[in-house]
Amino acid sequence: MEVKDVEMRDRTLTPARLFRGLLCLLVLLLTAFMMLVFYGFISAIFVRVFSIHYSRKATSFFFGSWLAVWPFLFEKINKTKVIFSGEMVPARERVLIIANHRTEVDWMYLWDLAIRKGQLGYIKYILKSSLMKLPVFGWGFHILEFISVERKWEVDESTMRQMLSTFKDDHDPLWLALFPEGTDFTEQKRIRSQKYAAENGLPILKNLLLPKTKGFHTCVQDLRQCLDAENEVANWLMDTFSNKDQLLDKFHSQGHFPHEGTEGDLSTMKCLVSITTLMVLTSLSTYLTFFSSIWFKIYVLFACSYLAFATRFNIRPMPIFRRKKIVLKLD
After folding, report:
1. Which residues form the Phospholipid/glycerol acyltransferase domain (predicted)?
2. How does DSSP classify residue 121?
């Protein structure tokens, strides 16, 4: 097989790139605050009191519009080329996504795939609990029902099982993203992982860390009956990571993955619709906050206080009226 050289782009941090990056971060932060306080609070708190299903639909609509800002800024403004390879991901199925963790922000790249599949507002992550303490964004992680873990199984097991039990309704779309390595990849962590693998007779991986199997097993066990892509998650996790390690070896030597181009370019029209919706909603929220009745200022203060409290103690209201399943036995 012919091996081709991979031309690396200039990655120098120029003032223009720094300005674009800071501008993108500012846009995300300001719009996140207004979306959380006005629309996230209403959809995830008030609507949830009556229906978890419709609460999730409303939250998906509002935050799908907000999360669409990232792929738009990433691909359209910063001109970053995203290449998808491998098998096609089903658009409307409930799936468990297993990914390696190369950088601290690679979980955001899954939004580029989710927006193409219409699942942007339904993607949920299992992430370290320290991220829940981030100003504003931590509130968003809570409203979007991300599962926070301490990376200590004796502490995390009950939290994971409780959250997973709320995801079993087949009527609620679900993309649950799990990073079995448990942390982002660094050279020091790779060395420790390889040492552990050698001492315990496990595969020695060069491009990945050994996956932690307990969280993966719990996700499969608890959601087995309500996931559509069961064949994908039933593969043995260690073998999957061994195969991924070999795939990354070939990528480093050849410069590409097999079967690239399985997803098309991001739809500019879809982005513009989401961005326009976001601009209208945040403009209305800003006007009500600063130029309208004092009651809106009181509302913002109350919403911020509640979101901080609910995120800190992982509180989510339950519906007043719960659906009951009626089973008829016919002789």
Report:
1. 95-217
2. G
In a 3-state reduction of DSSP, which class is residue 197? helix
Other CB atoms closer than 10 Å to residue 229's CB: what's the count?
Answer: 14
Domain with 115, as residue range(s), is 25-313
Q: Does residue 307 belong to any structural domain of this protein?
A: yes
Identify the three-state secondary structure at position 215.
helix
User: How far is 20 from 68, CA to CA, in rounded Å?
Assistant: 17
Backbone angles phi, psi at 97, to 5 degrees: -100, 125
pLDDT in the model for residue 29: 81
Q: Which of 148, 152, 172, 158 is nearest to 226 (CA)?
A: 172
Is 40:29 a contact under the CB 8 Å cutoff?
A: no
179 contacts 212 by C-beta, under 8 angstroms: no
pLDDT, residue 203, reads 87
What is d(CA 102, CA 109) in angstroms, rounded to the nearest whole number? 11
> Does residue 230 belong to any structural domain of this protein?
yes
Task: Specify the DSSP element, H or E, that contains 97.
Answer: strand 95-98
Q: Both tokens of residue 221?
A: 């066990």
Residue 329 counted as domain residue: no
Structural domain count of the chain: 1
Whether 331 is in a domain gets the answer no
Q: How confident is the model over 274-286, as pLDDT tens digits?
A: 889 998 999 999 9
Task: Give the helix ranges, DSSP H, for 255-321.
Answer: 268-291, 294-313
Q: Average pLDDT, stretch 35-62?
A: 93
Q: Show the tokens assigned to 69.
A: 């800002």
pLDDT of residue 104: 81
How deeply is 26 buried, as exposed, middle or buried, from its count of CB atoms within 10 A (0-12, 13-18, 19+)?
exposed
On whether the CB atoms of residues 240 and 178 are closer than 8 A, the answer is: no
Q: What is the C-alpha end-to-end distance of the chain, expressed in Å?
A: 66
For the chain, give the number of residues. Answer: 331
